[in-house]
Amino acid sequence: MGFGRETWRLALKLIVRQPGRSALTMLGLAIGVGAFIAMVSFGEGARRSVVAQFEVLGTNLIKLQTTNPGINPRARAPMPLSDADVRFIEREATTIAHVLPVARRNAGVAFGGEQRPTWINGVAPGYLSLHAWEIAAGGNFEQTDLDERVKVCLLGKTNVRALFGERDPLGETVTLAGTLPCRVIGVLAEKGFSTNGNDLDDIALVPYTTYNTHLTDRVAYAYVEIEPSSKALLDAARVEVTDIVRRAHGLEGDDPNDFTVSSPSEVIRAADRTARILGTLLAAIAGVSLLVGGIGIMNIQLVSVAERTEEIGVRAAIGASPGQILTQFLVEGLILTLLGTLVGVTLGIGVAMLVAENMGWPRVISPSGVGLSAGFGIAVGLLFGYLPARRAALMDPIHALRRE
Amino acid sequence: MPPVARSPDAPVIETRGLTKVYPNSVGDVPVLAGVDMSIAHGEVVALRGPSGSGKSTLLNILGCLDRPTRGAYVLGGSDVSALTREEQAWVRLHYIGFIFQSFHLLSHATALENVALPLHYARVPRAEAEATARELLARVGLGHRHEHFPSQLSGGERQRVAIARALTGRPPVVLADEPTGALDTKTGAEIMRLLLELRAERSTAIVLVTHDPEVAEYADRQIFMRDGKVVDRAEVADGLRS
After folding, report:
1. Which ipTM score applies to this complex?
2. Which of A42, A78, A127, A319 could form a disulfide with B92 if both were Cys (CB 3.0 to 4.6 A apart)?
């Protein structure tokens, strides 16, 4: 024990007696390690936050759409998505909880002499909960409204403002597409604009059966939203839906699909990937700062070796062997590295928590990130601590003592 | 490591034809040109001579900080003229104490820690090392200043700490390079008296480099150097005059 433990004790004493220099040496590494932990945590927090936001849009959702026929004149016109398709899916599919057809067209909505163009969507009652859309006043329509093709509607905020101003629209009758009178039974909560600039509140919702009977001469759904029975069945459901619709449309062998089946989870996965790339980038930048921190330790230790030339010479004259001087500087470097890393870990976790708190991100401190940065920090500190220690050990005591 | 015998009959230091040559661009510059000298156990020798006479180089070789180009240096009966750096360090630790003009104490260590340091390198357990250091500090008259840092001590006190440190390992040889050079006359005289007392108690040979003739008078014998050689006193006087 003797010499080893004494060396640690003496090195620790020396570090404590020069708090300024010690703090300065540790600073770079502490900031490097702290930045690394904080940035990894930011990256992970931002990723989870982005994914969570996309999940609000409906992760558990498959969208069935008619393919745009494009400009190829010889291509067969795609078959519209019909009631038969919807019923076929409902009957055949084993992995599906709900099938919600959406018909839509651009048409006028009128009240008391005022008329404006808007989007009219024919939907099922489940449409609102699926899209996390609240009702500001009144209520949703129900299954009986659907079954009996009742002439009722829900209005978006933009239509309410334009047609009713400050008046209460509930119970009033509006005219849709110039021909269909509908009683207003609810007002939708404001959603604002979509990412591509569409006013999401410029809308009127009617039961799709009512829409099919009165607002179109041919049933052709714009898209069908399909909810699998569980999240795990999403991919299976996509395969099944594709298969069922192909059969419903009489497609065989190599016939290309005349519809597309997509799911927002692809968007979420893309967002997740993007956020991961950003996280890696942040970690890479933080890694560089860690390296800079290590170089900082090396520089201060090198300066310290130069400053302490006299001390090294004295120790050598007294009888310290080159090995003992090397050990002393290595131990000092190691203690500073450990302290710096410890401070850095504390700092990094603190900053990460604080930022997560303020940004409303989930607080994620990844143990692997902390372990990695701490390990890397110690490695960098030791690596860059060795060079000055070696220089000290190889110093010629005669010259060391001459320089005053 | 070579075991250096401490036989009391043989001289503690003996050099034969000690030569040191420094190569430079013009050619080889001889700094020591065959120094023969012998110093007995417990003898105090003053090494004198003008600047550039080779005193410092000789002292470095005697202190195992440097190696001669040619010739033999026998310390305590063993030839130590061709040791590795690690071996030199071992010899310094166990056989040589250094005292410098500017004290060279570690500024971030207390008086006690400074004195105990050689024992740390000799791997003596701390309690034992500190007991020895305390004893020595008391002997040099600083029993009450253990926990003081060098900056809190006067010049004379610092040199006393340095003397205590040079003696902790009980070396047979102490090399003192202008030990009174940074002190006033009265303090310098006190330091010299202390050194002579310690020599008498421990039979430590002391090699003293000094410019001050009064300080040199404390020595049992004076050795004069000029142009890398040991010479008569008269020759040095001639050299200084010319």
Report:
1. 0.90
2. A319
